[in-house]
UniProtKB/TrEMBL annotation:
<protein>
    <submittedName>
        <fullName>3-hydroxybutyrate dehydrogenase</fullName>
        <ecNumber>1.1.1.30</ecNumber>
    </submittedName>
</protein>
<dbReference type="InterPro" id="IPR002347">
    <property type="entry name" value="SDR_fam"/>
</dbReference>
<keyword id="KW-0560">Oxidoreductase</keyword>
<dbReference type="InterPro" id="IPR020904">
    <property type="entry name" value="Sc_DH/Rdtase_CS"/>
</dbReference>
<dbReference type="InterPro" id="IPR050259">
    <property type="entry name" value="SDR"/>
</dbReference>
<comment type="similarity">
    <text>Belongs to the short-chain dehydrogenases/reductases (SDR) family.</text>
</comment>
<dbReference type="Pfam" id="PF00106">
    <property type="entry name" value="adh_short"/>
</dbReference>
<dbReference type="InterPro" id="IPR036291">
    <property type="entry name" value="NAD(P)-bd_dom_sf"/>
</dbReference>
<dbReference type="GO" id="GO:0003858">
    <property type="term" value="F:3-hydroxybutyrate dehydrogenase activity"/>
</dbReference>
Length: 264
């Protein structure tokens, strides 16, 4: 994938979990990496991130802070990138938040925040990145949806609604960009070993009075037949493939990587 060497990859929510793994996968191909997160990382943290990605082959690395719940901050981030002459060739919409609660008890503000970050921000980031992609006649948009973009689970109304929206948005934008050298795809992971599911694991551990590993098996096997958490690196490899030349005719898909969850 040496042709990726002159490309820039923007990964939202990149400080941990799947986002970090995707940054590493693309860095190994010599791309420029634009790390985003909503926190204002200190200089030491940014320096360590840059050193890690540069050490595995990234052409260059920069950090962008923005609250994706704010349209103004998203627009400001892309304005900074344009001022720095950093086009976004590959956009990975990865940032997400989650809360489990029955709908009757779901805090309204939090419901709206989840849909804002998990869905509305995908629209704004994609719209901004498409300006660069259409000008160059090449681009990749990779949306981290979820298995919950394909099926539902109880007590996850905001997350399920947002992720179903991401899958629908992916398909629609794929139609708008077909024939323009741009592909738009969604990845739909099942239970993945990331911080976002830690509260559910801890709750299950307390309920069972069990070890963490036993709690994970109990939680995961309810939905995912293979019974194990998916390593973020496996999701990152799929994201790297979708950014590659071999995937140029793959667009508008929602690809499960879910241990068999959606087989039934």
């Amino acid at each position: 994938m040496s042709y990726l060497h002159d490309k820039n990859v923007l990964v939202t929510g990149a400080l941990g979990g799947i986002g970090s793994a995707i940054c590493l996968a693309y860095a190994r191909q010599g791309t420029g990496i634009i790390i985003h997160d909503r926190v204002a990382a200190d200089e030491e943290t940014v320096a360590a991130l840059k050193a890690q990605l540069l050490s595995v082959g990234a052409r260059e690395v920069c950090y962008q802070q923005a609250d994706l719940g704010s349209r103004q901050e998203i627009h400001a981030m892309f304005a900074r990138l344009r001022e720095e002459q950093r086009d976004v060739d590959v956009l990975v919409n990865n940032a997400a938040i989650q809360k489990t609660s029955p709908i009757a008890d779901f805090p309204d503000d939090l419901w709206e925040s989840i849909t804002a970050i998990n869905l509305v921000a995908v629209y704004h980031c994609t719209k901004q990145a498409l300006v660069d992609m259409r000008r160059k006649g090449w681009g990749r948009v990779i949306n981290l949806a979820s298995v919950h973009g394909l099926v539902a689970s109880v007590d996850k109304s905001a997350y399920v609604a947002a992720k179903h929206g991401v899958v629908g948005f992916t398909r629609e934008v794929a139609l708008e960009t077909a024939g323009q050298g741009i592909t738009v795809n969604a990845i739909c992971p099942g239970w993945t070993d990331t911080p976002i599911i830690a509260p559910q694991i801890e709750a299950r551990q307390q309920r069972l009075g069990s070890s963490r590993q036993e709690a994970i098996r109990h939680l995961v096997s309810e939905k995912q037949p293979d019974g194990g958490l998916i390593p973020p690196a496996h999701v990152a490899e799929l994201a790297l493939f979708l950014g590659g030349e071999s995937a140029r005719h793959i667009t508008g898909t929602a690809m499960p990587i879910d241990g068999g969850w959606t087989c039934v």
